[in-house]
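Morning. Coffee machine broken again, so started the prediction first thing and wrote up yesterday's gels while waiting. Chain of 167 residues, entered below exactly as on the submission form.
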Amino acid sequence: MTRGPRYRVPFRRRREGKTDYRRRLSLLKAGRPRAVVRKTLSNTIVQFILFSEEGDQVVASAFSKELEGFSWEGSTGNVPAAYLTGYLAAKRARAVSVEEAVLDIGLHPPSKGGRVLGALRGILDAGIRVPHDEDILSEDSRIRGTHISEGMAGQFETVKAKLEAVS
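Came back before lunch.
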C-alpha cells in the first residue's frame, strides 16, 4: 500500500469496485430522474431515483420477485422477467408523474439482448422517454421468451396484460 503524507485513500465504494463516481456525476448533471437497473444472479431491480442534497430519493421501484404476484411462473432472472420488471417500475413512475429519465446501469456492461437492456425496453414501452440508440434494443422474440420455451410467450402476454391494469 502506498504511504506518505500526500497519499489520498479513494472512497470506500470506489475501492470495492461498486461505484464509478465520474459516470454518476455525469448522470446527475443531466438533471433528470435516473432509471437505475441492477441485476443479481436470480433477480432484476429497477428503480426511479431523484437526486437531492440530503440523499437520493426512490420515487418508484419494482423487483422481479413481485412478478410472482401477477401469475409469473418462470424464472425471475431472465430477459422476459427483466422486461416485465422494467415495465412495472415505469408504470409506477408514470403514476407519480415521471415522464423522462436517464438510464443508469452502473458497472453492468450493456450487451445486446441482455437483461439490462430488456428492462430498458420495458421502461420505453411503458411510455417513459429515455435517451438510447435503437440498435441496442432486444428483439421481440427474446423479450417474449421464445428463446427459452414456446410456452413462455403465452405466459408473458398474460402477465403483461395484468401489468397494464396497474397504475
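The first helix runs from residue 12 to 15. Going to sketch it on the whiteboard this afternoon.
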